[in-house]
Amino acid sequence: MPIINRIAAFHAEMTEWRHDLHAHPELALQETRTSAVVQQKLKEFGVDEVITGLARTGVIGVIRGRGGSDRAIGLRADMDALPIHEETGVPYASENPGVMHACGHDGHTTMLLGAAKYLAETRNFDGTVYVIFQPAEENLAGGEIMVKEGLFQRCPMEMVFGLHNWPQLPAGTFGWRHGPIMAAVANIEITVTGKGAHGALPHHGVDPIVVAAQIVSALQSIVARNIEPVEGGVVTIGHINGGHTYNVIPETVHMKGTARWFRPEVGDQLEDGVRRLATGIAASFGARAEVVFDRAYPATVNDPDATDLTIKAATTVAGSERVRHMGKPTMGGEDFSFMLNAKQGSYIMLGAGRGKGDAMVHHPAYDFNDEILPVGASYWASLVEQLLPAK
Ligand code: NI
Fold this sequence. Notes:
Elements: H1 5-8, H2 11-23, H3 32-45, E1 49-52, E2 59-64, E3 72-78, H4 105-122, E4 128-134, H5 142-148, H6 151-154, E5 159-170, E6 174-176, E7 179-182, E8 184-193, E9 197-198, H7 208-226, E10 233-241, E11 248-249, E12 252-261, H8 264-284, E13 288-297, E14 300-302, H9 304-318, E15 323-325, H10 336-342, E16 345-353, H11 373-387
Parallel strand pairs: 3-4, 3-5, 5-16, 6-15
Antiparallel strand pairs: 1-2, 2-4, 6-16, 7-14, 8-12, 8-13, 9-11, 10-12
Helix pairs in contact: 2-4, 3-4, 4-11, 7-8, 9-11
The structure holds nickel (II) ion.
């Protein structure tokens, strides 16, 4: 059985929902319109309960199957957009300048709505399904907020599942992985303070730009020389700001960057390395460095048994030749990690590629591939019908 027929029948309707969400993107924790649209649709579908108020704009639909089983699972989609100016040229492009659904969360929300519509209509399962629409996947950890505000106490469930579209995999294929699939993320800030001086009289000051340059180069030695070569790790400085003209040595230089890793021990080594090098190098030049190493998201680590269940559901929908091992994990971050740290579960990639030259997520030319809407919705529905079988 490939795509569920009943879901294929409302592909056009799902496409309309997706285009409407795409035209009205909202940034993290500001998803009020999106949240209202989701709530309204869940009510139209006749779900048993709509829970709101978690993580400000979060929505959970409760759908009870036939029979009296007290078993339950959760399916999670994200709703937020990115601060990117859209360059797709599509007729349903963002009407909110500078904000764009560049990661396909419009598609994720639509696929879970499609599954909710089907599940509420057919109820061909025994137990409870929680369809979780979370805000703020990007940067503000809406997933963590939902967990902290009692998601799993309010909605007791055995397992929780997530999905992300992936333009680098062909449309309609699935990519799974046991263990780590996405990296842990830390935001780095380094402020180097020297002593300002005339640009022609450097001996009167301590030049923080020269110090910052040494630090940027030295930070690359952490992954190259301190981390075991077979481990994954990244340190990137993405922003450097100091001074304003030709002939003045400024007082301070400010830098921002990101660190990525999988194993917690590697995260500790990266943090230690960034602090040691930045403060040590600054001190050796007679300057001072303040370091912030803010651990934002943990690694997304899939439970093997839960992953096997997702492989089975994906295979039902796409066929075994289109369900592939991901090989390597990616260094991208994902706040579904907070849900997986609190609850057994797994996160799968759904291929969205149309062919050569696809824009990757977070690119201004990226657009979610509507072809895969019924694939994702059928995957969710199959997962429910297989995990909570009707008697
Ligand atoms: Ni995303």
